[in-house]
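Here is an idea for our session: we take a single protein and study its fold together. Which protein we use is up to you, so please pick one and set it down. Once you have written the record down, we can walk along the chain together:
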Amino acid sequence: MADDVRKIPLSFQRVPEDEMRSRAARFAEHARLRRSVRQFSPEPVPAGVIEQCIATAAQAPSGANKQPWTFVLVTDPDTKRSIREACEREEAAFYAGRASRRWLEDLEPLGTTPDKPFLEQAPALIVVFAQRHGDERRDRHYYVTESVGIAVGMLVAALHHAGLATLTYTPAPMKFLAKILGRPDNESGFIILPVGYPAADCEVPDIARKPLDEVLIKV
């Protein structure tokens, strides 16, 4: 059966080893500058930039090439306000009792609260939905969480590379997103990415990443 699959030549450009090392080092250094931002400027983003970053994310690999994602770009102020209000209702319940004491203790150094003004401050929100199956239930999707997670990672990297700030925000539960944005029953809210420029007075928590020797094992 595999022999019957239509194939095309791979488009791949090999680069010299020195250039490989240089590219890897430059990308790693650029990635170290990425931070999660919760204070945004309302300044609009140049037209087409976010769409191009979403186009990059849509190149992610996926189980059986089902591409089980939908990206909803929200810039309408009323819709952003509705999303914020719904998120803050869920967050209030989370901080008031849904979260364990240990969870809240772990969040304390980050300074997060039930208030999410960034959902209105940011000029754009990207709401990512995971498609549990196709338009018909018999159209199965595979490794949906893994596939959409890879796409979101590529999206975050693309936005940072383009010169924008963002935040990975996951209110739970988030069933309200499908209702607000009119998404079909086969889609579930996966993550919200506020996108824009940092506010002039933006500050971020003083945290550090684990060193490479703590996260890399060579066998």
User: Anything to note?
Assistant: Residues 91 and 114 are 5 Å apart (CA to CA). The chain has a mean pLDDT of 96.
